[in-house]
Structure to design on (209 residues):
């Protein structure tokens, strides 16, 4: 059975509304546009660089804004709701012999507390790191740290950049439509599969050749 690595933000935890609320709080201070709820459907169709252009966040200001939002969000992660009802799917994968992991740029301690609060303590590992040079490098570091064979892992994520990172790292990827990007947006990045419901995950993963 494969190692299944889940993205955290948007895939497991419902962080989208929190990110928007925090981003809007600091918009005036850092000089970018606020995100009205009416813009959300349109933004979910865009790539990260297109979102930044829409909001007016320069590449030079981006690291500062991201650090600030991440710092504020870490205060709330433990108390967030799940993005989808994944428990039954995770239990089935676990009982079938899959190794389950999380790849995140959030604090490992906060993610562990979130899992405890949401009755999702089913993961074999939570790997936390900085994605300064993109998620593909972080994925490769994870595989090396956990001695995961190159052809073994399946990455599950909700963003276009998740799909692109997995493909760049040379591993299989499943996109989920309940997070940051829509199904149509994910399809343009050409993941191996796209699912709209958690129960579709175990059907795909457990039937891998």
């Amino acid at each position: 059975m494969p190692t299944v690595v889940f993205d955290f933000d948007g895939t497991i935890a419902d962080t989208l509304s929190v990110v928007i609320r925090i981003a809007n709080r600091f918009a005036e201070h850092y000089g970018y546009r606020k995100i009205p709820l009416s813009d959300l459907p349109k933004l979910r169709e865009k790539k990260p660089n297109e979102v930044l252009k829409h909001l007016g966040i320069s590449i030079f200001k981006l690291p500062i804004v991201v650090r600030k939002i991440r710092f504020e969000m870490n205060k709330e992660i433990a108390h967030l709701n799940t993005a989808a009802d994944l428990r039954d799917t995770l239990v089935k994968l676990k009982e079938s012999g899959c190794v389950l992991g999380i790849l995140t740029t959030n604090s490992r301690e906060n993610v562990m507390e979130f899992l405890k609060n949401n009755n999702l303590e089913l993961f074999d590992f939570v790997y936390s790191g900085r994605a300064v040079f993109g998620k593909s490098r972080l994925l490769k570091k994870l595989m090396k740290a956990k001695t995961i064979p190159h052809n073994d892992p399946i990455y599950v994520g909700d963003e276009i950049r998740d799909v692109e990172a997995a493909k760049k790292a040379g591993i299989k990827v499943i996109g989920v439509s309940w997070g940051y990007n829509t199904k149509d947006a994910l399809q343009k990045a050409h993941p191996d599969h796209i699912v709209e419901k958690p129960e579709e995950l175990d059907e795909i993963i457990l039937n891998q050749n």
Strands lie at 3-7, 99-104, 125-128, 154-157, 172-176, 193-195. The radius of gyration is 17 Å. The first strand starts at residue 3 and ends at 7.
